[in-house]
Amino acid sequence: MIYRLLALNIDGTLLDSAGKLHKTTREAISYVRQKGVIVTLVTSRNFASAKKVARVLKLNELFVSHHGAYISTPAGNAEFIKRINEDVTYEIVRFLEGLQCQIRLVHEKFSLANKLHLNNNLLAKAIFTSGDPLTYSHQFTADLSDSLVDTPVAPPKIEAYFETEQELQDAKQAIKTTFSEVETVDNTGLKLDIVPAGVSKLSGLLYICDRLGVSPKEVVAIGDGLDDIPFIEAAGLGVAMGNASYEVKRAADWVTRSENEHGVAYMVKEHFRRQHPIAFLKKMNIIKK
């Protein structure tokens, strides 16, 4: 099979456990792009944070952020945006404020969070290790729902951080039952992502495939999280990182090395060194378009 698109998750995949993009990985991405393979990002990160990674890799094509709710080029030409509307956002915030959790509204230009302090301080860890550019503002307020009355927000994603697994599962079930306008996302840890109904990393990847005229079977998709499973399964070659859980590895066609062992670079060079450049394949009429 000839693969024309490489789709990559960011955290735990492109980046190592310290949040760094290793030179070996950058070189592997450059190598595969020189062969004419299109490279895109498929991430739950906000647009500003994902754009920073895209620019380091010198990518120009559409990429998926906010877990499929925001699809844009690194230059900021957004082609697809789906938001949780202002009224639903307010109602979800009101519901979450009745629980012991930190709430974060993740807009493409800023985040807005409550000041509630959890014992494990998960929100602070998430914010300060996310790699957001300095232009991405993190705002905090003592009463989030009151702030939304004065200044409504329609974010592409809402995040909630809990102290126990039981609290997270209870909130997840209640949101599923109460709010048909949104969906929850499977994660590891005590974080709950809430996105507009109908969007996912898979829907974002399929949107990009359609725009580029690439079949999902011509895609190599690499990820490590539970939320990566659908797009790994849909790809022609689904790859799990060595640091991924058993569930992710079971869903994949191939398992590469871990993020700290440069698993993306290893997979790219193991596979794509055997594939001729796309321009050559077109010249030989092996690829028709």
Automatic annotation (TrEMBL):
GO terms for cellular component: cytosol. Pfam families: Hydrolase_3 (PF08282). GO terms for molecular function: magnesium ion binding; phosphatase activity. NCBIfam families: Cof-subfamily, HAD-SF-IIB. This is HAD family phosphatase.
